Please model this.
Amino acid sequence: MAVKPTIEELEQRVNALVQETLEKSRNIAALKEKLEQFESKSEITSSETEKIQVSGINIKWHPKHGTCTFENLPVAMMWIDTTLAGLMAGVQAMVGTERFGLALQSEGRNSVEADWQVISGFSDFSDGFDAIANIASVAGWGDWKLISFDDKKKVCRFRVKDSWEGRYQKSIGVCWGSGMLAGKMAGYCSRLFNTNCWTDQTAFIANGDKYDEFVVEPSERSIEKELENLLATDEATRADMAVALQKLQKEVQERLRAEGALRESEERYSGICQ
Model:
């Protein structure tokens, strides 16, 4: 007949089981921690990607491939005072200051479609602009502020601190104006007010001001008209002349095609009459 264990023996067995369970729990926790560390390192190694999130914006780097993305869109980073300044100075030297500024304004206007999808997602323009300003700040475009907004007069005033255009120009001692930003602001307001708008820059970081400032309002001025006016002044460059020559050649070709079609029609008509 089996001997029943005493209370002391049962307590000892229970304590032993508790200690064994605690030890196993500690071992499991340690294994989980090591597994998480391994998975984290494995994720970086296998995908060769490192990522961070700044103000809700996802930025990823692929060091092995030498690429990076901003919300899954490819981007390239440049040193403002050297690489970017040299690039922009080279373009300005080729086409001249006036045409350089107009080209940047044109591209600024053309680049607002995706921006406007963000802005128009808000019922209030100010809130929408704050949203796009957050994205711009993370991307290194400076601190954007909507200073005033008059819906009746259709006038907006913007200020941008630490704009890349103002900073690179200040670093090389020039002031050509922040054309890309001017174009973007004009593009936003043209959509907001449903009419063509033009930007006048009233403050310049490149000249020592604390910010770039832009006043945007409806205007009959346009990039095309400004380029035509440029051709009529002494500010025209070889690039302007080349554009004018190309336009003239196109008009001549169209005229020659029209004359050829007219002669062909006359010959057919003459043949029918005979």
Remarks:
- The mean pLDDT is 86.
- The longest helix spans residues 7-47.
